[in-house]
């Protein structure tokens, strides 16, 4: 039992580190919202670890950032990032991880057509749960209307984020298979 707890803690820490590293793959854009691999990393943690441990990994990442560790894009950190123009996306990572992990957990428990559909719906809801607070906060900080904020800070990223989530799901499955992991790890 102790071994499982240690393994879980190591996996949570490892995925928090993966999220910190992939956050540095960042392309600055005129909107002020950089294109990063954060969405991929959040989804990967959730799909691989399940909703509880995946969300815990994202929470560790965010906690490191809030205390000033430079884990956010362009080696930034601090509380100011949570209240800045892109802070809504950071807040949105938590429900995104929960929803993506929930969908993956359902699918791992019973890979039937119904659960495949639920996994896709949970993942889409997770992406929305990330983008909605991102657009809302972008709108508040920038003074843009919600529609203008969506068109500037969300719409251009939706295709990239959708593809990132699909690739994260495929990568998580491939790694689980290669490691010989079974459905029992869907927490």
Offer a quick outline of the entry.
By secondary structure, the protein is an all-alpha fold. It has helices at residues 2-23, 38-66, 80-83, 87-109, 113-142, 146-153, 155-178; strands spanning 26-27, 35-36. The protein has 7 helices and 2 strands.
Describe the structure.
The chain has helices spanning 2-23, 38-66, 80-83, 87-109, 113-142, 146-153, 155-178; strands spanning 26-27, 35-36. It is mainly α and 187 residues long. Strand 1 and strand 2 form a beta hairpin. It is globular and about 50 Å long. The two termini are 15 Å apart. Residues 183-187 have low confidence and may be disordered.
Q: Which series of helices and strands comes N to C?
A: HEEHHHHHH
Rg, rounded, reads 16 Å
Largest sheet entry: 2 strands, antiparallel
Gross geometry: globular
- By DSSP, the count of extended strands is 2
Percentage of residues in helical conformation? over 70%
Strand order of the main beta sheet, please? 1-2
Q: Could you list some keywords that capture this structure?
A:
187 residues; mainly alpha; two-stranded antiparallel ribbon; 2% strand; disordered C terminus
Write the layout of secondary structure elements.
Blueprint: H1 2-23, E1 26-27, E2 35-36, H2 38-66, H3 80-83, H4 87-109, H5 113-142, H6 146-153, H7 155-178
Antiparallel strand pairs: 1-2
Helix pairs in contact: 1-2, 2-4, 2-7, 4-5, 5-6
């Amino acid at each position: 039992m102790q071994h499982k707890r240690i393994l879980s803690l190591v996996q949570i820490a490892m995925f928090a580190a993966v999220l910190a590293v992939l956050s540095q793959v960042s392309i600055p854009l005129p909107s002020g919202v950089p294109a990063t691999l954060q969405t991929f990393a959040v989804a990967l943690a959730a799909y691989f670890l399940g909703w509880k441990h995946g969300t815990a990994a994202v929470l560790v990442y965010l906690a490191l950032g809030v205390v000033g560790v430079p884990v956010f894009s362009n080696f930034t950190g601090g509380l100011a990032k949570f209240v800045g123009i892109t802070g809504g996306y950071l807040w949105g990572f938590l429900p995104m991880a929960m929803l993506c992990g929930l969908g993956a957990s359902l699918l791992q428990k019973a890979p039937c057509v119904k659960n495949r559909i639920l996994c896709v719906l949970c993942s889409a809801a997770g992406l929305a749960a990330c983008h909605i607070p991102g657009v809302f906060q972008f709108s508040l900080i920038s003074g843009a209307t919600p529609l203008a904020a969506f068109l500037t800070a969300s719409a251009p990223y939706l295709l990239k984020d959708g593809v990132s989530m699909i690739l994260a799901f495929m990568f998580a499955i491939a790694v689980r298979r290669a490691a010989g992991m079974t459905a029992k790890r869907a927490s």
